[in-house]
Design goal:
alpha/beta; 6-stranded parallel sheet; 15 strands
């Protein structure tokens, strides 16, 4: 293995690297640093904990030392990762030269960031959202920034940051050097990266989407009712710090509170916390003030805390690539670590996708060949029709009966036809054609009998013996004015006794109806 002195690094930096115990480069550093020093764009991928930060930070500092008027921009997806990269960069800088740096992240004081920008820093590290805020306010000028770094490329190029990156690229010069690094590199991300790279060099160390060999993976099959008790059992029987990943922010707070009640010192971190509290939680966990940290996927990328020995997936991630980043928080810098997955029957589909991601060519083989890793490679199947009761077994497609109602008729044994898009209603193509419906209505009314054809009934008689007045003749449409008038007069006669009865009752209760009737009589 070569040392850093053989990679072409400036002699001024070698002493500083020795002081921070950078003696032998990792495989990704050994391959990426010489290529970056030559000025090539890089699309690099390597396993978690292999030193990708130094792979772009060392060439970046060397570039700034060689070009006095240039500056560099480093974009990261989370605030914690940005602060960590700034700390690592400042350690590599040491006292070489006064190269200022600024941290521009959301949730931090804007006044503090403006004071940093007044010092004309040459290294700007931040998140895309806050960088765009400064660009829109014209408090940041990156027209001379010819060195760009995108860390955690797969997350930076997804739907959340794609628009923001396009806005930032408009302010950057076209002639620049761009470095992209990540632990996972899906095919769609590789295609998207071509928009920002210029004849890049692809560097891949180890297998893509692979877990480090020094991480043991264990699966605990459980249920929703016994999941928390199994978690307590795993935490109490393990040694060292524990990082627990959950799905939601509310779930992180709730689980941390529940663990504290069970006498387990714990804290929670998620996106809803203020920046100061997030920094305090990370600092306390780094200083081992509490043993268990419950986090969402905000802590899944780049968090480098050496004493994390156990990672527990209380909830599986929504994205399979995040699984590799999650368990990569342990076994940092060659150490050993343990990843525990609590799986319930409803996690079968997610676990199957994770297994396919890590084993694309040999799906039926064991996940780990290591005999000391008790991992069951068979994915849980929540839709197992063999073990299901007969009443809940899914029916075959051929035996399924579909009923289709068409104008009162029911046809069995036929599938419902697919709806076709028509040009009658472009906003809702599957809506009925109103013109055709109106045409059918006109045809139906044209065939209806005319008014003269209706049967005329004699005058209606009132039935007085019933408790409620009703009309003895059946309902019918009136064809002449005479019958209509007789119907109206009979209707008034029906209402008259009811009105008198109501006024009589109201008079006994002192209702103002009596005075109203007197006023009406005077007016007449």
């Amino acid at each position: 293995m070569t040392n850093f002195s053989k990679l072409g690094i400036p002699a001024i930096m070698l002493d500083t690297l020795k002081q921070i115990n950078f003696i032998d480069p990792t495989p990704i550093q050994e391959q990426a640093i010489p290529v970056a020093l030559e000025g090539h764009d890089i699309l690099g991928s390597a396993q978690t904990g292999t030193g990708k930060t130094a792979s772009f930070a060392i060439p970046m500092i060397a570039h700034l030392l060689a070009n006095k008027k240039s500056s560099a921009l480093v974009l990261l997806p989370t605030r914690e990762l940005a602060a960590q990269v700034l700390e690592a960069t400042n350690r590599m800088l040491g006292n070489i030269e006064k190269i200022g740096s600024a941290l521009l992240i959301g949730g931090d004081s804007m006044i503090k960031q403006l004071q940093q920008l007044k010092r004309n820093p040459r290294i700007i590290i931040g998140t895309p959202g806050r960088i765009n805020d400064h660009l829109s306010r014209k408090t940041l000028n990156i027209s001379a920034t010819n060195f760009l770094v995108l860390d955690e490329t797969d997350r930076m190029l997804d739907m959340g940051f794609g628009v923001q990156l396009n806005e930032i690229a408009k302010f950057l010069p076209k002639e620049r050097q761009t470095l992209m690094f990540s632990a996972t590199m899906p095919r769609n991300i590789t295609d998207l990266s071509r928009k920002y790279l210029r004849q890049p060099v692809r560097i891949a160390v180890g297998k893509e989407n692979a877990v480090a060999n020094n991480i043991r993976q264990e699966i605990v099959k459980t249920s929703e009712g016994t999941k928390y008790n199994d978690l307590l059992n795993q935490v109490n029987t393990r040694e060292g710090s524990v990082l627990i990943f959950v799905k939601t922010k509310f779930g992180a707070d709730r689980l941390a509170t529940r663990l504290s009640k069970d006498k387990l010192s714990s804290g929670a971190i998620h996106g809803d916390l203020h920046q100061r509290k997030r920094e305090r939680v990370i600092s306390d966990f780094r200083n081992q003030k509490f043993r268990v940290l419950v986090a969402t996927d905000i802590a899944a990328r780049g968090l480098d805390i050496p004493h994390i020995e156990n990672v527990v997936n209380y909830d599986l991630p929504q994205c399979p690539e995040d699984y590799i980043h999650r368990i990569g928080r342990t076994a940092r810098a060659g150490a050993e670590g343990l990843a525990i997955n609590l799986l319930t029957p409803k996690d079968g589909a997610k676990w199957k996708e994770i297994y396919k991601l890590m084993n694309p060519s040999s799906r039926d083989k064991a996940m780990l060949s290591d005999g000391f890793s008790p991992v069951d490679s068979k994915p849980l199947n929540s839709n197992d029709s063999k073990n299901a009761p007969k009443s809940k077994r899914p029916m075959r497609a051929g035996k399924r009966k579909v009923e289709l109602e068409t104008y009162g008729e029911v046809e069995t044994g036929k599938r419902k036809p697919k709806a076709r898009m028509t040009s009658h209603n472009p906003f809702n193509p599957f809506a009925p054609d109103k013109k055709a419906v109106n045409k059918q209505r006109r045809e139906r009314f044209s065939k209806a009998p005319k008014a003269s054809e209706y049967v005329s009934y004699p005058e209606f008689e009132l039935v007085e013996n019933e408790p409620k007045a009703r009309i003895s003749a059946p309902k019918a449409k009136m064809s002449d004015k005479k019958s209509f008038k007789s119907f109206a007069s009979d209707k008034n006669e029906v209402k008259k006794p009811r009105r008198e009865k109501f006024n009589k009752n109201a008079k006994s209760f002192g209702s103002p109806i009596r005075s109203q009737n007197k006023a009406k009589a005077k007016r007449k």
